[in-house]
Amino acid sequence: MAVVTGIGDSALSRTLAALKERPARWLVTGSAGFIGSHLVEALLQAGQTVVSLDNFATGRRENLDHVASLVGPEAWSRHRFVEGDIRDPETCQSVCASIDYVLHQAALGSVPRSIARPVDSHATNVNGFLNILVAARDNGVKRLVYASSSAVYGDHPALPKVEPEIGRPLSPYAVTKRVNELYADVFASTYGMKSVGLRYFNVFGPRQDPDGPYAAVIPRWVKALLTGDPVVIYGDGETSRDFCYVKNVVQANILGACRDEQDTPHEVFNVAVFQRTSLQTLFECIRDLLARDFPGVATAQCRHDPFRPGDVRHSLADITRIGDRLGYVPSHDLRQGLVDALEWYVNSIGAPVGGIQAGSG
Ligand code: NAD
After folding, report:
1. How many whole angstroms from 106 Cα to the centroid of ligand 1?
2. Contact present, 280 and 233 (Cβ < 8 Å)
3. What SS3 state is found at 198?
4. Which of the residue ranges 27-31, 109-113, 240-244, 355-359 would you say has the lowest mean pLDDT?
5. 174, 166 Cβ separation under 8 angstroms
6. 301: CB partners within 8 A, 6+ apart
7. Which residue, among 308, 351, 235, has the nearest Cα to 359 in the 3D structure?
8. From the centroid of its chain, how far is CA 4?
9. Is the dihedral of CA 317, 320, 325, 328 positive or negative?
10. 325 near 263, Cβ under 8 Å?
11. CA 233 → CA 302, 304, 314, distances in Å?
């Protein structure tokens, strides 16, 4: 499938140029996490002032330290970090004071985590979301952009996924993200609170945690290949996803926040590439890219375990709506994203060039 990439930066560069002219104040929640830390980085590099909030439930201080080292002292001085919890309404009120735009990323991700601990997922993803929404409304925030998920499509069979056609949720996590969209919609119609929901499709990139039981597939497999651990595919390998590099997600957030004031008060958009990749193909792609520097990886094979409950079989996003309304065009496809991300993983894992053995089957 042909993927159009690389020209999305035009809408983004126009928006960033306008923001540089008239800098704004932003709140990023979940800023010590993977996606949140990229948003902080991009906003500081664009001359913005950023307040950010995290309780380190899954995020890490090193992510913020890494951003500080990348953006330099002047930009970092425009950032204020607040350690706090979105489940606390007062914290949400205080971080929303004098904020123009909120990029709300804080949540407990992962379908399996939500199946194991649904009450925890609900408390952060629904109650915490509502606290942020209320605080944004009370403090006159211009627009709130929030992380929804492709999980909202649940059991709807259509491919590619188009925003109005959703099915029954397949996990508590999917329920929480659907509830976010419903609340945002009601806040738009009831209080005039403007928002944009972004249904992310399998985001990957630097600073994504490779460890723990709920780690995402790309960092987990890269680490496994580099350390010689088994790579496990749940199911037959034909399960497919639309893998989205984190820079595309940053683009969508900034375009969503800065869309025209007159535009629809609340709208949801797919954020992806429109590129369907099976898990087997993904494995081979990562292995072959790594093998260029680590020849021992070239013959690694993966192990197939049973399917996991709650996992959607196929996922592919139609990105027409976000292209038409926000001017989004992905700047990175899977391969371009993997090349950037792998370099970071190799450095962070500290893998010795030429010293890797093939991952055991
Ligand atoms: P992440 O776990 O790296 O980041 C989430 C951050 O939120 C963490 O830093 C965590 O400490 C923080 N957090 C959690 N609970 C909190 C609380 N109660 N108060 C304050 N901070 C809290 O995950 P991510 O991959 O960066 O995901 C960001 C958002 O995108 C989440 O809402 C997630 O559901 C959504 N999303 C991610 C993907 C993906 O592929 N990564 C796909 C779809 C949706």
Report:
1. 5
2. yes
3. strand
4. 355-359
5. no
6. 231, 359, 361
7. 351
8. 20
9. positive
10. yes
11. 7, 5, 14
Count other Cβ atoms within 10 Å, centred on residue 36.
27
Residues 38, 61 contacting (CB under 8 angstroms): no
Q: Which residues form the pocket of ligand 1, taking CB atoms under 6 Å from any ligand atom?
A: 30, 32-36, 53-59, 85-87, 105-109, 124, 128, 147, 149, 200, 202-203, 216
Per-residue model confidence (pLDDT) at position 8: 46
Q: What is the pLDDT of residue 215?
A: 84
Beta bridge partners of 148: 199
* Residue 26 Ramachandran class (φ > 0 left, ψ -120 to 50 alpha, else beta): beta
- Asked if 109 and 34 touch (Cβ cutoff 8 Å), the reply is no
Using alpha carbons only, what angle is made at residue 274 by residues 107 and 209, rounded to the nearest 5 degrees? Answer: 35
* Residue of 277, 293, 278, 306 lying closest to 351 (CA atoms): 293
Rounded to an integer, the average pLDDT of 337-357 is: 75
- Number of continuous H segments (helices) and E segments (strands) in the chain: 13, 13
- Calculate ∠ Cα 314-231-59, nearest 5°: 80
Mutate to test the pocket of ligand 1, among 40, 58, 95, 207 (most ligand atoms within 8 A of CB): 58
3-state helix, strand, coil in the chain (%, to 5): 45, 15, 40
pLDDT of residue 311: 76
> Cβ distance 80 to 53 under 8 Å?
no
Q: Which of 282, 278, 281, 257 is nearest to 267 (CA)?
A: 257
- pTM, two decimals, is 0.94
Question: Tokens 């664009």 belong to which residue?
Answer: 46
Neighbours of 138 (CB within 10 A): 15
User: Token digits for 117?
Assistant: 């601990």
Contact 318, 270 (CB under 8 A): yes
Atom nearest to 124 CA in ligand 1? 18
From 101, 146, 173, 245, active-site residue:
173
Query: What pLDDT shows up at residue 361?
Result: 30
Active site annotation includes 173 = yes
